[in-house]
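Researcher: I'd like a candidate sequence for this fold, 241 residues long. If you have to choose between options at a position, lean toward the conservative one.
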């Protein structure tokens, strides 16, 4: 099921977006759960009470708090870099602030139906890649974790250390064998590391900063591949505009 939040203090906009999404769910036979909020604080309180969304359509010019403030709380305070955010506004000039919150896209008002539906299509495509399971063995015990919850893999001699949103674990294996079973959202940065692109905070010429503040090296031979992946990923986002 796709979980969607709509947050806008304009009731008409909320109804319009909700109806477009409901029509889409019927047409494509996809189960979609929609929650509507008219206040940013209400949305944050809902998420803090252990609710989550795959995508949030978030108005920037909310009355009690801005959409950018809501997005910042989601990313920085709640440490949620997985939920996709699509900002909605009739104004421009937020580019720098939007960049800091890492939105998936931006919708102008009045709402363009086809552009909104392309956002839904992209989220479904990303979730299809991300919501698969990685399985491994520790001793005689088999364990599994969703790919979307893995930050990175690290080579530790004959073992592999896996760092996830919940902690770390170790098992016998090689990064080469692991990489062959991972979706392409995972990138080899170095002979000793494979990282999940979704959890990268910053990329420089010789290292990557992950959201848990871990600094991971980039080898020169892998830098080009990472840059090409970035270009391809950003192109997919531009194509929905």
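Model: Candidate sequence:
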């Amino acid at each position: 099921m796709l979980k969607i939040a709509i947050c806008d203090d304009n009731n008409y906009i909320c109804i319009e977006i909700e109806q477009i999404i409901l029509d889409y769910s019927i047409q494509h036979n996809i189960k979609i759960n929609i929650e509507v909020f008219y206040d940013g604080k209400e949305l944050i309180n809902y998420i803090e009470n252990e609710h989550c969304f795959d995508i949030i359509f978030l108005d920037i010019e909310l009355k009690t708090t801005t959409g950018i403030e809501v997005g910042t709380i989601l990313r920085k305070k709640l440490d949620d870099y997985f939920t996709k955010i699509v900002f909605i506004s009739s104004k421009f000039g937020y580019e720098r602030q939007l960049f800091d919150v890492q939105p998936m896209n931006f919708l102008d008002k009045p709402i363009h139906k086809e552009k909104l539906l392309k956002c839904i299509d992209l989220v479904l495509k990303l979730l299809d890649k991300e919501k698969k399971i990685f399985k491994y063995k520790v001793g005689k015990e088999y364990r599994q974790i969703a790919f979307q919850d893995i930050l990175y893999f690290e080579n530790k001699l004959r073992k592999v250390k896996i760092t996830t949103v919940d902690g770390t674990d170790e098992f016998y294996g090689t990064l080469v064998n692991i990489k062959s079973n991972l979706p392409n959202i995972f990138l080899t940065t170095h002979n000793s590391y494979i990282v999940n692109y979704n959890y990268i905070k910053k990329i420089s010429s010789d290292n990557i900063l992950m959201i848990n503040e871990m600094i991971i090296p980039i080898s020169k031979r892998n830098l080009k591949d990472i840059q090409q992946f970035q270009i391809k990923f950003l192109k997919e986002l531009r194509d929905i505009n």
